Amino acid sequence: MNYNSRSSSEPLPLSSSRHSPFNSPSHSAPLPQSSTPSSRSVSPLPRSPSISPSPSSLPQIQDIATPLTFNLLPPCPITENPPSYFTGENQLNYYFVKEMIGFSGDSPVYRAPFGCEPFEIPVAVMPVNQNDGEYRYVVSKINQNRAVDDANVLAVREEVNVEGRLWLVFDYVGPSARVLYPQGASLPVISHILFNTVKALVSIHAKMLVHGDVNTGNIYVQQGPPFLCKLGFGATKHVCLQTPYHPHFLSFSDVCQWGDAPEVYPRMNARTCSSDVWQLGVTAMELAMGNVWVKDRISFTNFVRSVTKEWNFGVLEDADFKKFLVDCLNDNPETRPTSEQLLSHDLFRNKHL
Fold first, then answer.
1. Max alpha carbon distance in the chain (Å)?
2. 55 assigned to some structural domain
3. DSSP three-state, residue 53
4. Are residues 83 and 195 both part of a single domain?
């Protein structure tokens, strides 16, 4: 089948984060509470112990993809003095700042529910540095987020000025899919996550916007009940604290640089809606295979070819899922499906989504 790809004349700029774009959640101790708004420092989190993925979970192909013993992403070297709580612009919502769960650029992200247990509504908050360049960049991301009104996109709730600082408040669902499924997920879970992500991309592309950073680290999941997942977009993308990394190998998840679509890499052409679909295909591979580490672009290309044309085990035995991978990872952007066309893909229709 031939598909016509859509493109945007205004692709999102590359992330300004100085950290790896891998993602992960936090298990740090809650911050101490005080009865009045005050300042306090957050101690740097200790380095987490190393993790070894199960050898049976990843293909043992030395020249294509290598399962390794790897460390967790080092804690973000940020010290902040967050208030114990602050109120929203309407003076009715009280946000109680809890533990740090991640970072976005150089800004920490905290869990900050409002309401009382067991009726807490989970949200996340992030202080924004108000220097000219970064502030304008974040504001543009907030505007992009608010232009997309979709339940599958992690939404900005409000911005609040607290003691001269702007705090961004947005929905919090849970950790990223990358952290929850380091050895891959089952086909029903994969199908559910991909279907909701495709619906989010349809809404983003309908506004002639490009996500540009589609990967499992930007898909946040509540395992339930009920099972929920939302795609971080614009100002609501954040990196969780416990992301695996290896200093000498490339994470399969770093699709937004060396692993991008062939029409984007290595010339670093502008990303388009069609390259979002390529990234969705890589996201589907990561959901199926778990954390896979490759040496370079050639190893990545070989891995893509093996997954789409040679291997048939685990979830790759499902013909609909295999077809989804082949369609999204089509080298030709002109024949790659659009996000809207993917909504009616057999992977979703046959799984009754």
1. 63
2. no
3. coil
4. no
